[in-house]
Design goal:
5% strand; binds zinc ion; mainly alpha; two-stranded antiparallel sheet; disordered N terminus; 299 residues; globular
């Protein structure tokens, strides 16, 4: 708070604004550009992957300075997404590795993304409370809350795991977590109109007329879908994704997992490649998107 010279600030964990100010006041600019902070340390690449070039760029600038008008603010652009599901979660094995490498643990952004329930590195279920005493670790609310190596009762959070076997529906949850990681790290982005055609081609290939909530539940399990607030009440939510009416990244990745096996498989599949977009640094090109096949560079 002192950094911004204000007594109180609303802390946004997923799509924070005024990143340029943060980079300025911390002197971070010597080491990192505002662009790289947004790309590498926020959930921006995830939330904007299915928005299309124009809106993706607007979100970028609203995060850069926070001066963008309300109409194009991150809240309104991502209003229909599952942002409210973003939570503080940790992986005990990651905590141990962070301690060994850096002397302290930190919140990993991929674990914060909506619907991510397993660590894709350690194939272990993520936690939000102490395994020993149940003390809540990621306290909700808007105040900054650093991750510490022990709970408030002193139990270490990196105790050797009771790792569960990743089988059945948990396997689908793991693929989802890996796909989120891929979106964050490779900065793949899509143009909705073109992606829609790829979806249509795949539906045809599979011989399916439609994709319903029930079919998604067979793959992911009803309890997983319920945990991310997808229920029978809207049985055709997958169709809104396929028709390009829904830009929610979580729902897109879930549909992709169901239809293609994984995001990687979809990208490497035999589809015309001009639908795949890759974002150049927004400060370099106004419009910020250039068509570029990632088929080779992504593997
Ligand atoms: Zn981990
Ligand atoms: Zn404890």
């Amino acid at each position: 708070m002192d950094l911004f010279n204000k007594p109180f600030m609303h802390v946004v964990r997923d799509l924070p604004k005024k990143i340029s100010l943060l980079v300025d006041v911390t002197g971070m600019g010597k080491y990192r550009s505002v662009h790289s902070v947004i790309e590498k340390h926020t959930l921006y690449p995830f939330y904007t992957a299915f928005l299309g070039a124009k809106r993706r760029n607007k979100v970028f600038w609203s995060m850069f300075g926070g001066a963008v008008t309300r109409t194009y603010g991150t809240n309104s652009i991502c209003a229909s997404t599952s942002r409210f599901l973003a939570k503080l979660r940790y992986c005990p094995d990651c905590v141990r590795e962070d301690m060994e490498r850096h002397g302290e643990p930190y919140w990993h952004r991929v674990h914060m993304a909506p619907g991510v329930s397993v660590c894709s590195e350690h194939k272990r279920k993520l936690m939000s409370s102490c395994e020993e005493c149940g003390d809540k670790i990621g306290i909700s609310g808007q105040h900054y809350h650093p991750l510490r190596a022990a709970c408030r009762n002193g139990h270490p959070l990196f105790a050797p795991g009771r790792s569960e076997d990743i089988v059945g529906h948990l396997g689908a949850a793991l693929v989802y977590a890996q796909d989120v990681k891929m979106l964050l790290e490779t900065r793949v982005a899509f143009e909705p109109g073109k992606l829609k055609k790829v979806y249509r081609a795949r539906l045809f290939e599979l011989g399916w007329d439609a994709l319903t909530h029930e079919e998604m539940a067979q793959h992911y399990g009803e309890s997983f879908l319920h945990s991310v607030r997808l229920t029978q009440c809207q049985p055709y939510w997958p169709m809104a994704v396929l028709r390009g009416e829904d830009h929610d990244p979580m729902r897109h990745l879930l549909v992709i997992g169901r239809m293609f096996g994984s995001l990687k498989q979809m990208i490497e599949g035999s589809y015309p490649c001009d639908w795949l977009l890759f974002q150049l640094p927004a400060h370099q090109v106004e419009g910020a998107m250039v068509k570029e096949s990632l088929i080779n560079s992504i593997a």
